[in-house]
Amino acid sequence: MSPKLRKFVEFCKDFSSNKVALVAFFIFLLILFVAIFAPLVSPTDPYDLNTVSIMNSRLPPFSEDFSGNYFLLGTDGAGRDMVSAIFYGLRVSLGVGVLSGIFALIIGSFFGISAAFFGGRYESIIMRIVDIQLSFPSILVALIILAAFGKGVEKTIIALILVQWAYYARTARSSALVEINKEYVDAARCLAFGNTRIMFKHILPNCMAPLIVVGTLQTAHAISLEATLSFLGLGLPITEPSLGLLIGNGFEYMYSGDFWISIFPGVALLITVASINLVGDHLRDMFNPRLH
Amino acid sequence: MTAFIFTRFAQSVLVLFIMSLLVFGGVNLVGDPVEMLINPEADQAEVERVIRELGLDRPVTEQYWYFLINAFKGDLGDSFIFGEPALKLIIQRMPATLELALFSLFISLIIAIPLGIYAGYNPDSKPSKVIMAGSILGFSMPTFWVGIIFIMIFAVQLGWLPSTGRGEIGTFMGINSSLFTLNGLSHVFLPALNLALFKISSVIRLTRAGTREIILQDYITFARSKGISEKRVVLIHVLKNILIPIVTVVGLEFGSLIAFSTVTETVFAWPGMGKLIIDSIYNLDRPVIVAYLMIIVTFFVFLNLIVDILYTFLDPRVRIKGNHQ
Lengths: 292, 325
Known about the structure:
The structure holds two protein chains of two kinds.
Chain A: H1 3-16, H2 19-36, H3 38-41, E1 63-64, E2 70-71, H4 82-118, H5 120-134, H6 138-149, H7 153-180, H8 183-190, H9 195-206, H10 208-232, H11 243-251, H12 260-287
Antiparallel strand pairs in A: 1-2
Helix pairs in contact in A: 2-4, 2-12, 4-5, 4-7, 4-9, 4-10, 4-11, 4-12, 5-7, 6-7, 7-10, 8-9, 10-11, 10-12, 11-12
Chain B: H1 2-30, H2 33-37, H3 44-54, H4 60-72, H5 86-121, H6 126-140, H7 143-157, E1 170-172, E2 175-177, H8 182-215, H9 218-225, H10 230-252, H11 254-267, H12 273-282, H13 286-314, H14 316-323
Antiparallel strand pairs in B: 1-2
Helix pairs in contact in B: 1-13, 5-6, 5-8, 5-11, 5-13, 6-8, 7-8, 8-10, 8-11, 9-10, 11-12, 12-13, 13-14
């Protein structure tokens, strides 16, 4: 076995020691699979106007229509199958959450590592901005952006990136500060490598562990925040029906007792966010040297 | 010390200035200000009159200058929907939001501190594991969805508690609040519990971590060796020492409750500032949106300023660093 492979196997063994986190990880994989292949695994296409019939609107769970279509979780106000709507909704929610997470990771680690590397005035300005931003609750930052610039897919993603980047920047800086004093960085400097190369080819890979932990927890947070914003009508437009929008749509039927329209998308959201959080929590414990 | 406060104050003003640029930019440069700031039902003559009145035919820099001057005078424009000054509308709704946030802070402390102490005192027991799992669940549950479930269970199915509005408002010592009537309390309970949920999870974790540390301290061992009962050790020695950091952190985070109340107020139709901003966004009531954003940002900037200054008193290390800057 190559050392890399051996390290990976060891990591897997270590990770599986916590059964709850392992189960959460497989649930998350399943959700990811459903989200990616939503058009293939959904019983119907909920946004194809030829198959959706208003005659089927607000059918309770476990019901069947006249042509023999079975609705495991019932239908919504427009007669869409809830199972399919949730599958498609997961796709939008996860897509927006993961995309914004990746961008925030890139931007945040760039500023964090360069702040640690160059130090001085540049570092204090960057870290001051991070501190100021973190003193505002995430929902408020998103609210300011979306209230001032209006809703939309790109705007929601921009708002989520702005909410998250500061966490990545702080984490990246604090781990880069430790790495910078190590010998391999001195060695790289002696070889007269460029600053960019040292920062992103040498220091960044060694800062990845804490960044991944922050990444999982932040992605869960971003998915939840996007759902909240979309529910409030500030996030995604109705053309991109995420789980938050589905819950919002069901809210108006709550008072007439049609609970399934907003409850089931919420359960899907909860399972997604909780499974990511459980995996992230366990990863944090694994990478935390004080607990070993 | 003075230098530190001065630097922080200058920074707060800078943040406010950048925010005003952002909000002003959002309203006036990204969208069409005529469409956004003028009532859509106005006719052509009216449109031209308002354009002149608002100075929209002037250069952008000049417009921004007038926006700043008017904002300093407390004039953030009139609401399209209510026809009243936006600032007045927001201030009218502020007590409802504060009352909701305060009550939910109270609920979260009452529930979370005993649970946290228990989980910290018996870290390996079954109930502690359940409490900690519950706190992860509490972090993961979207607040608005839990609110919907509360309404479904307690208002629609069981019919125990009302789910919308603020209820009867009582007066006590010159303060109007629905916390002073039974009907008002029944209205505030569900939204406050909903808003408290997130706080409960985080306070449980804080209390547990604190308790685990305190239990190992010498003064606890000493108290035990004096033969004080375990009950007294926990209720007096542990509780008192745990309260200081918790009250500090929770007090400082009060602002986040106000920010998150936007969501809870929308779900429970609670007539506070948060519901006003969401309604205003729906109705494109731009003056109210701008006014709300400016007020809430000012509120947070000064809250943070106070927190920073308080910290210099609580933690001398901050003060020393500030002096050497």
